[in-house]
Amino acid sequence: MIYPDKNVLVNEVDTLVKKYGSGRESLLPILQDVQRKFGFISDFAMQEIAHRLDIHPVEVYGVVTFYSFLSTEPKGKYVIRLCKTISCELAGKEAVAKTLERELNLKFGETSKDRKFTLEYCHCIGMCDQGPAMLINEQVFTKLTPSKVIEIIDSLK
Length: 157
Ligand code: FES
What we know:
The chain has a 4-stranded mixed beta sheet with strand order 2-1-3-4, with helices on one face. It has 157 residues and is α+β, with helices and mostly antiparallel strands. The protein contains 7 helices and 4 strands. It is elongated. The chain has 2 domains: 6-66, Arc Repressor Mutant, subunit A (Orthogonal Bundle), CATH 1.10.10; 78-156, Glutaredoxin (3-Layer(aba) Sandwich), CATH 3.40.30. Bound molecules: FE2/S2 (inorganic) cluster. FE2/S2 (inorganic) cluster (FES) is lined by residues 83, 85-88, 124-128, 131, 133.
């Protein structure tokens, strides 16, 4: 996890505005890149982006809080998102969820103190026929079982 200082953020936003342009339509791609690079979008980053795109900071905040893949808080190095939608629910999501909580010693919605893991629920990720399914950052894991989860988490510790 990188905690950027203000100059680094100003330079990064500058680079992204050059890359995507300073129109309102650039807001989402800029936010996605800042999220990817720094792991979250700080208040300062939101203000700087609003300033550069000439829009109100509240509008930027509204977009960041609307999309679950964007965050105003630092998250773990590994963001684990378990699908909680119906097909995965029926395929055994609950046992997988309990195993994740136990193995990580976290509840859903929490980040570990060492900022290694964040555990969250998400909605359908399009793997309904191979549930239970989860994402770890951008990698998809399917047909999860408690023992498979233990193996995956062990490999990340
Ligand atoms: S219901 Fe879980 S991936 Fe679609």
